[in-house]
Amino acid sequence: MAHHFTILTISHALLLLFPLALSYGHSNACRSYCGNLTIDHPFALRSGCGHPGFRDLLFCINDVLMFHISSGSYRVLDIDYAYHSVTLHDPHMSTCDTIELGSHGNGFAVEKWRAPYLNPTADNVFLLLGCSAQSSLFQGFPGKHLPCRNVSGMGCEEYYRCPAWSQIGLNRVGATYGTGPPECCAVQFESIKAVNLSRLDCQGYSSAYNLAPLRVDGPGQWSYGIRVRYSVQANSDSYCKACESTGGSCGYDLDGFNELCMCGTWNSTSNCDTGNLIKLVIWIMGFQPG
Ligand SMILES: *[C@@H]1O[C@H](CO)[C@@H](O)[C@H](O)[C@H]1NC(C)=O
Ligand SMILES: *[C@@H]1O[C@H](CO)[C@@H](O)[C@H](O)[C@H]1NC(C)=O
Ligand SMILES: *[C@@H]1O[C@H](CO)[C@@H](O)[C@H](O)[C@H]1NC(C)=O
Ligand SMILES: *[C@@H]1O[C@H](CO)[C@@H](O)[C@H](O)[C@H]1NC(C)=O
């Protein structure tokens, strides 16, 4: 009798484990690739996958990963999962080789609801070019201090040494703090919260970041692009780890944008073991001798 019960127990346990094993097979349901970039949590290309703060953000077009926010579309050059950052390229951004005026650049501004999740890093400098004297950047000038400063060893004094300035005429560089607003003003994102060229009344911008622990030599060596830090709350991070460690994929429901753990054939509000555990408990209770 006891022997019979053991065999039943084992076969039932196997039946219970079977869907669990199946769900493990779906563990990478939300991971995807675009060109040579891996798109993983909190990002995703499929809607319903990833963290809701990053929904409708990334698009893969002909193997080029595009990042779309309210200020425009950018090409994603890199996603650094270890440092929680994304590097973006705006084709209308000035670099050391070309200066593009005419306010075609995107700048950088995100939707209000997305603001907690995406912020350019503290070591990223925005070089605002050709801003008018009426720009809010210079309000109170010359009495008040300008927000312009060097960021992470990068600033306008050095940027003026770029060959691109000679293309647009050196006289543009003439303006100094004494006579009017400077032709270039370097700021950290934190000090202005949004790089909106039309609102700031600027004609162009450049953006660079410095990954090296040491100062790099000259603006020709800077890395041009926008380095954005992405963040998810710690509780959401541990929620996802628990989900993935039980074979699930982190996602959210499309109605309320609440986080979900997708377990292959079903969705859990916690992780993929919970449901199986409940089934197991119900099954064991059903076996209690009456
Ligand atoms: C991805 O490909 C681009 C060129 O298309 C290259 O510049 C970049 O270094 C590659 N990135 C990785 C991580 O291999
Ligand atoms: C930039 O500023 C302009 C004018 O103030 C405004 O109409 C536009 O919506 C802003 N763009 C973004 C992306 O916030
Ligand atoms: C920025 O750094 C340069 C040297 O690279 C220096 O000449 C300049 O005074 C600094 N500017 C500010 C605002 O600190
Ligand atoms: C689980 O949630 C995802 C994302 O909202 C949805 O696409 C999928 O249909 C759901 N699956 C089930 C079995 O309900």
UniProtKB/TrEMBL annotation:
Keywords assigned by UniProt, alphabetized: Signal
Compartment annotation: Membrane
Main location (coarse class): membrane
Span of domain Wall-associated receptor kinase galacturonan-binding: 30-90
UniProt xrefs under Pfam families: GUB_WAK_bind
Annotated Gene Ontology cellular component terms: membrane
Single GO term (MF): polysaccharide binding
Membrane topology label: Single-pass membrane protein
Signal sequence, renumbered to the chain: 1-23
Top-level taxon of origin: Eukaryota
Classification via PANTHER family: WALL-ASSOCIATED RECEPTOR KINASE CARBOXY-TERMINAL PROTEIN-RELATED (PTHR33355), WALL-ASSOCIATED RECEPTOR KINASE GALACTURONAN-BINDING PROTEIN (PTHR33355:SF3)
Protein name (record): Wall-associated receptor kinase galacturonan-binding domain-containing protein
Taxonomic lineage: Eukaryota, Viridiplantae, Streptophyta, Embryophyta, Tracheophyta
